[in-house]
Design a protein that fits this description.
Layout: E1 4-5, E2 17-18, H1 44-51, H2 63-66, H3 69-88, H4 93-119, E3 124-125, H5 127-138, H6 145-157, H7 172-181, H8 194-197, H9 200-207, H10 209-229, H11 232-255, H12 276-281, H13 288-293, H14 309-319, E4 323-324, H15 331-351, E5 364-365, H16 367-374, E6 379-382, E7 385-388, H17 400-404, H18 412-415, H19 424-431, E8 434-438, H20 453-456
Parallel strand pairs: 5-8
Antiparallel strand pairs: 1-2, 3-4, 6-7, 7-8
Helix pairs in contact: 3-11, 4-5, 4-6, 4-11, 10-11
Keywords: Electron transport, Fatty acid biosynthesis, Fatty acid metabolism, Heme, Iron, Lipid biosynthesis, Lipid metabolism, Membrane, Metal-binding, Oxidoreductase, Transmembrane, Transmembrane helix, Transport
Membrane topology: Multi-pass membrane protein
Main location: membrane
């Protein structure tokens, strides 16, 4: 999982493997921080759940003590301003355009900056780009880079467990917003962010975070609209408050909608899913099943037509020399993940079908016994198997007489093209009429033909590969009776 693609002038189809990028060198005067997960036990998750006492359940008696009042204030006052302003402040087209633009700027601060650059280190960014993303991310008012990345790394390491800060198994609304409105029920699992402590941009943003969120969240968009076209209150309401609401819930959808809506084309072990609607809601973060399988990849969407403006932004930055070493997971391994899930889906379909009897479950009959029993019931031999064709005599497209004349005989040559080269459907149907195995095997060269076409590519688990159809016809001293 550590092999990635490194490239200075990246293209979408790069596949050359290189070692993973080393973390940035420690800044002068910064004390070396020991990784938080350096000494955790091997059974850390189960041990922590067993030994770490969670907060008491929320009830009518204690709910007011369990609320996170700072977060509640941010997530309620801001939309209240936006709703009130929408009814009392006219929306100018210039403000509307700028609000959408600034939504993408601050949204990319989270998706391209907080998420793909700092939380996952999926590419390298120049200092100017880092400062831009740090400032833009602050405008989204979702915590500092270090705080946000620490929680997100815990989410990836402990996905869907009690140590996941926004565990999707707790419900859609919990993972969307509930986990922020109340105090954490349990301390999130340990996640190392010592690499971010060495980053001067991260430390700068962390130090000035309160000033940055006020400036970038409200002051900047208000001033731009005021000085640009004289719309002070429109800038404050729409480019400030309303835009911030959209950015918040856009990002929150990555934790909720992306774990609820869509398909699992790479792995279904955990809840993350892929869906274009989620991608549209989250500036390209909607191909979440891929992301959780290959989190170090700078892409979420791997197809050119899939909506992922964050990927496009990072790629353009690389073309301008502002970003480099864009990591791409090996295409061969991505294809394995897709194939695994495709085979699993086929296996599920396969399990509900009725298949031909296993040769090991059929009696082994001599030629003499076969001919004797064929005088009492319509039995024919094809490819070493004895078939009871009573139910098909009057259904045969070529006429009843073609089957009747083969009763008590070996019809292998006629069936395999001597009279008619039967279709796959005919082979499959005939195999369902098997009632015995002819003692002595089959004619030379017919080993592959004894397997019905539907079962030649049958999906098998690794412990099922020793198929009875891969060996020669079983022989037995036991003289069984047919069906």
């Amino acid at each position: 999982m550590s092999s990635v693609v490194s490239r200075a002038a990246p293209t979408e189809e790069a596949t050359t493997l290189t070692p993973p990028l080393t973390p940035p060198a420690a800044s002068k005067g910064v004390k070396e921080e020991e990784p938080a997960d350096a000494n955790i036990p091997d059974n850390y998750v189960s041990w922590t759940i067993k030994n770490q006492k969670p907060r008491p359940p929320i009830s009518w008696d204690n709910w007011w003590k369990e609320l996170n009042y700072l977060t509640i204030s941010i997530l309620t006052i801001t939309p209240a301003i936006a709703i009130y302003g929408a009814f009392n402040v006219p929306l100018r087209w210039e403000t509307a355009v700028f609000s959408v633009f600034y939504y993408f700027v601050t949204g990319l601060g989270i998706t391209a900056g907080y998420h793909r650059l700092w939380a996952h280190r999926s590419y390298n960014a120049s200092k100017p780009l880092q400062y831009f993303l740090a400032i833009a991310g602050a405008g989204a008012v979702e915590g500092s880079i270090k705080w946000w990345s620490r929680g997100h790394r815990a989410h990836h390491r402990y996905t869907d467990t009690e140590l996941d800060p926004y565990n999707a198994h707790e419900g859609f609304w919990w993972s969307h917003i509930g986990w922020m409105l109340v105090k954490p029920r349990r301390k999130p699992g340990v996640a190392d962010v010592s690499d971010l402590s060495k980053n001067e941009v991260v430390r700068w943003q962390h130090r000035w975070y309160r000033t940055l969120i006020i400036t970038c969240g409200f002051v900047l968009p208000t001033v731009v609209c005021w000085l640009g076209w004289g719309d002070f209150w429109g800038g404050y309401v729409f480019a400030g408050a309303a835009r911030l609401c959209f950015v918040h819930h856009s990002t929150f959808c990555v934790n909720s909608l992306a774990h609820w809506l869509g398909e699992t084309p790479f792995d279904d072990k955990h809840t993350p899913r892929d869906h274009v609607i989620t991608a549209l809601c989250t500036i390209g973060e909607g191909y979440h099943n891929f992301h959780h399988q290959f989190p170090m990849d700078y892409r979420n969407a791997i197809k050119w037509y899939q909506y992922d403006p964050t990927k496009w932004f990072i790629w353009v930055c690389s073309q301008l020399g502002l970003a480099s070493h864009l990591k791409v997971f090996p295409e061969n391994e991505v294809a394995k993940g897709q194939l695994t899930m495709q085979l699993k889906r086929l296996r599920e379909k396969q399990e509900v079908l009725t298949w031909a009897p296993d040769s090991n479950d059929l009696p082994v009959i001599s030629w003499e016994s076969f001919q004797e029993q064929a005088t009492k019931r319509p039995l024919v031999v094809v490819a070493g198997f004895i078939h009871d064709v009573a139910s098909f005599l009057d259904e045969h497209p070529g006429g009843r007489h073609l089957i009747v004349k083969m009763i008590g005989k070996d019809a292998t040559t006629a069936f395999f093209g001597g009279v008619y080269d039967h279709s796959n459907a005919a082979h499959n149907l005939l195999s369902m009429m098997r009632v015995g195995v002819l003692h002595g095997g089959i004619q030379h060269g017919l080993d592959d033909k004894r397997v019905p076409p539907s079962q030649r590519l049958r999906v098998a688990r690794y412990n099922e590969l020793a198929s009875p159809y891969a060996s020669s016809t079983a022989a037995s001293d036991y003289e069984g009776m047919l069906g």
